[in-house]
UniProtKB/TrEMBL annotation:
Organism, scientific name: Paraburkholderia susongensis
Lineage, broadest ranks: Bacteria, Pseudomonadati, Pseudomonadota, Betaproteobacteria, Burkholderiales
Entries under Pfam families matching the protein: DUF3331
Protein name: DUF3331 domain-containing protein
UniProt-listed InterPro entries: DUF3331
Length: 95
C-alpha cells in the first residue's frame, strides 16, 4: 500500500471523499456523509460492478460490468452500495 498526498473530492449529496492510500487494486478512503455515516479509514477494492448505479463522485451512470471501486469491509457498511467509477479515480491517483 502506498501513501499518497491525500486527494479530497466532493461527491454527490454532500459526500466528502479523501483518498489516503492506494495500491494497484485497493484504496483507503475517508468517507464523510453528513447525517448518515463517517468512515475514517475504509478499504475500497477495484472490481466489476455487479449492478447498475451512479458514481458517488461524478454522478455518471455505471453499468453492470464497468470497472468501479466499492467498499470491501465486512459486515457491509452503511455506504456498501456506493460505487466510484475507476475511470474517474485512476487519473487522480496516478498523477
Amino acid at each position: 500500500m502506498m501513501t499518497i498526498e491525500s486527494i479530497l473530492l466532493d461527491g454527490a449529496n454532500g459526500v466528502r471523499i479523501e483518498i489516503l492510500e492506494r495500491s494497484d487494486t485497493t484504496l483507503v478512503i475517508r468517507w464523510v456523509e453528513p447525517g448518515r455515516c463517517h468512515y475514517g479509514e475504509q478499504r475500497w477494492r477495484r472490481r466489476s460492478a455487479h449492478t447498475s448505479g451512479t458514481c458517488a463522485v461524478s454522478r455518471r451512470k455505471i453499468r453492470r460490468g464497468d470497472a468501479v471501486y466499492k467498499p470491501a469491509e465486512r459486515p457491509t457498511p452503511s455506504n456498501g452500495s456506493a460505487m466510484i467509477c475507476a475511470e474517474v479515480l485512476e487519473p487522480l491517483v496516478e498523477a
